[in-house]
Amino acid sequence: MGNATAPIPSDVLDHVSIAVPDLEAAADFYRDNFGCTVGDVIEVPADNMRIAYVELANIKIELMQPLDAGSAVGKFLARNPSGGIHHICVATPDADGAAVAAGAAGLRILGEGGTRPGHHGRKLFFLHPKDCMGTLIEVEETD
Amino acid sequence: MGNATAPIPSDVLDHVSIAVPDLEAAADFYRDNFGCTVGDVIEVPADNMRIAYVELANIKIELMQPLDAGSAVGKFLARNPSGGIHHICVATPDADGAAVAAGAAGLRILGEGGTRPGHHGRKLFFLHPKDCMGTLIEVEETD
């Protein structure tokens, strides 16, 4: 875990997330060109999107197709119509504790300010990219 | 390896690469907030940049500080002054073979069209993001 006294102790990237305009085409792209295994499409109505995971040996690539042009991912896709890398996700053992410690360390949390459950049931939050050198970082409780 | 008959067989992301305006500040950010180990700064004169690797258990994050505003990464930073996620890198056992097969599969390679040695000596090439759903994908020979 590197240093467990850090606000958000993590030594694992859970996934890299890529916004795409066409989820099936993106799944085919990774399957056909790299021989990757791509999981089933998961509907995520809470976030108005559909996702699928490219399952690599060391990490997952999350492919996200927004269904709502007004959502955060929908707006990102409007700015990047072909698609693009949207965020990285670090895993931490205690997401609620990490959210409190992140706030105390001056890192803003997007939305309501605490954790929320993801489609998988694990707690997560997003750090404000302006506090993270331009990178959108999701923090997710360890699987 | 998933499917070894794919043009660029890969089941590993070697790294995720993030452009940053200040390499030391970025290294401190990952060290202080996540407790990560960050390696020494590596000068890469061939690419006019300085890099450092955040060494996670399953993957590396490559932090890149361009030294030349006219370079590809320098131009990316001009568009994203705070920094941002720049590319992902897949590992494949035979980079030269993958470059030929990628071309045959209709995936354009940036620059000279074949592999070149990276700062670590391993062969690599970059696929055109327009052929990869907006994502810049580096292909690097397995370590």
Attribute tags:
nine-stranded mixed β-sheet, 2,3-Dihydroxybiphenyl 1,2-Dioxygenase, domain 1, alpha+beta, 143 residues, 21% helix, 34% strand
Helices, strands, pairings?
The structure is a homodimer of 143-residue chains.
Chain A: E1 12-19, H1 23-34, E2 37-38, E3 42-44, E4 49-55, E5 60-66, H2 72-79, E6 84-92, H3 95-104, E7 116-117, E8 123-127, E9 137-141
Parallel strand pairs in A: 1-5, 6-9
Antiparallel strand pairs in A: 1-6, 2-4, 3-4, 4-5, 7-8, 8-9
Q: Can you put this structure into words, describing what you see?
A:
The structure is a homodimer of 143-residue chains. Chain A has one domain (12-141): 2,3-Dihydroxybiphenyl 1,2-Dioxygenase, domain 1, CATH 3.10.180.10. Chain A is 21% helix and 34% strand. Chain A is built from three helices and nine strands; from the N terminus they run βαββββαβαβββ. In chain A, strands 1, 2, 3, 4, 5, 6, 7, 8 and 9 form a nine-stranded mixed β-sheet that branches. The longest helix of chain A has 12 residues, at 23-34. Chain A is globular, with a radius of gyration of 15 Å. At the A-B interface, β1, α1 and β6 of A face β1, α1 and β6 of B.
